[in-house]
Specification:
Blueprint: E1 6-11, H1 17-28, E2 32-33, H2 35-45, H3 49-58, H4 68-73, H5 83-101, E3 104-107, H6 111-114, E4 121-127, H7 130-139, H8 145-167, E5 179-182, H9 183-186, H10 188-199
Parallel strand pairs: 1-3, 1-4, 2-3, 4-5
Helix pairs in contact: 1-10, 2-5, 7-8
């Protein structure tokens, strides 16, 4: 497969980023991973996805993925770190393993940063205006209208904190991505088509 073998997508809540990832994977005939990474980490870590999500929401003080290299040099042994750090480090190792297995789309989990040293990764951020995201939250995610604004804030805040805690970077900083797409303006179908074209453009 010529071009970018791995596409990573960070996205605002209710921007349709997960759907963009799904459509892109279908068009390219490659697997798409998102929550599956959380579930894999939970199985390997002997816990539940919900517990990991709880830890991520309440413990946001560690630069986790900087420890991936440390674990490699220590023969795969995890250093003496907190449970939150161990679980997030495990997610980073799972992302590395999935990328080594072959072309794929990875949604969320700071995957673009985890794989930043690879030359075959296309890193993307999907966003949309607030009104469009509120509409999608209510109409497609079936969030009660009176709760939609609070849900948007909660998930965006959580994703931003998780990204910063694990990378030290601003989640919405455009310089951190190869492409930034407005799904409210372009629509999820066109966003996916643009990613397919971009992924195949690298010689």
């Amino acid at each position: 497969m010529k071009g970018y073998h791995i596409i990573t997508i960070e996205r605002e809540y209710a921007s349709g980023g997960s759907q963009v990832g799904k459509l892109t994977g279908e068009a390219l005939g490659i697997p798409v991973y998102g929550r599956e990474i959380l579930e894999m980490a939970a199985r390997e870590g002997g816990t539940t996805p919900e517990y990991i999500e709880h830890l991520e929401e309440t413990d946001t003080n560690s630069l986790l993925y900087s420890l991936v290299a440390m674990a490699k040099t220590a023969g795969g042994q995890l250093p003496q770190i907190s449970q939150t750090d161990q679980l997030n480090l495990l997610e980073g190792q799972i992302i590395q393993k999935l990328a080594q297995q072959g072309p794929c789309v990875i949604v969320g989990r700071c995957a673009g940063w985890v794989l930043r040293e690879r030359q075959d990764v296309l890193s993307v951020f999907i966003h949309a205006n607030r009104q469009e995201r509120l509409r999608r939250a209510v109409e497609e995610y079936h969030i009660p209208e009176e709760q939609a604004a609070a849900v948007l804030h909660r998930f965006d805040h959580r994703r931003s904190n998780f990204y910063h805690a694990n990378t030290g970077l601003n989640w919405r900083e455009r310089e951190g991505y190869h492409m930034v797409l407005d799904s409210g303006l372009l629509g999820v179908d066109l966003c996916a088509k643009l990613l397919v074209t971009a992924s195949q453009s690298k010689e």
